[in-house]
Design brief:
Largest sheet: 7 strands, mixed
Radius of gyration: 17 Å
Number of domains: 1
Strand order of the largest sheet: 5-4-3-6-7-9-8
CATH class: Alpha Beta
Number of strands: 9
Number of helices: 6
Structural class: alpha/beta
Shape: globular
Length: 233
């Protein structure tokens, strides 16, 4: 892989992972965290194939997957224009434009690019909190990333149900406080939970985020028999 550091615009800076992946981010807006890296590692350890990422942010998960050799094309959609622009620049600077397509817009639309039933994997690190719960961040970029202003849980699950191929696997992240909501919404969306993995910040500490793998109906993902992960399943 040949890569170069993406050019940072005013109000941006550059973060580097593993000494080789460079990402422009907003200096004061939304910034990726360790949960994005753990999501990428989790996806890489599971079944592979053409992948849709709903809410790619600055493209960190998509770039990491491509850099680690993920076997499948990656379509990364982002509704916030500034973040979609950063994702495009990060994909180009890391030399993955052939493997990753960044789409700016709403994942509930774009049926020409996001054809129903065609993605072996659908992933999302979505807004964690319902509107009206907790404190809304005053920065618009952070507010949309953290609270369900533009994408709530039922809408996300509808995207997964419609875009996921038969036998495919979806992965989403939510804090433990939302697991009851997720369980109820999954049943209504004709999906089921195949596995959960607690993400703990340090040994002996409680999980702050839970990875949730979903399948359509009551099936099992392709390749599940050879899929092994550390975590609670």
């Amino acid at each position: 892989m040949s890569s170069s550091s993406p050019d940072a615009l005013p109000g941006e800076d550059v973060s580097v992972l593993e000494g080789r992946f460079a990402f422009v981010q907003a200096a004061r807006g939304w910034r990726f965290g360790s949960d994005a890296v753990m999501l990428a590692r989790h996806v890489l350890a599971g079944p592979q194939g053409d992948l849709l990422e709903v809410g790619t942010g600055c493209g960190v998960v998509a770039v990491l997957l491509a850099g680690w050799g993920y076997a499948g094309t990656i379509t990364a959609i982002e509704v916030q224009p500034e973040l979609a622009d950063r994702a495009r620049r990060n994909v180009a600077a890391n030399d993955f434009s052939q493997a990753i397509t960044v789409v700016e817009g709403d994942a509930r639309r774009h049926g020409d690019l996001l054809r129903p039933g065609t993605f072996a994997r659908v992933i999302a690190n979505p807004p964690y909190w319902r509107l009206g719960s907790g404190r809304t961040n005053p920065h618009p970029e952070k507010a949309v990333a953290r609270h369900e202003f533009l994408l709530d849980l039922p809408a996300l699950l509808a995207i997964i149900r419609d875009r996921l191929a038969t036998g495919g696997l979806a992965t989403i992240l939510y804090p433990p406080e939302r697991l009851a909501d997720v369980s109820a919404a999954v049943d209504r969306a004709d999906l089921s939970v195949a596995r959960t993995v607690d993400l703990v910040p340090a040994p002996g500490r409680p999980a702050e985020v839970v990875l949730i793998d979903l399948v359509r109906g009551r099936g099992q993902p392709r390749g599940a028999s050879s899929w092994s992960l550390l975590g609670r399943g």
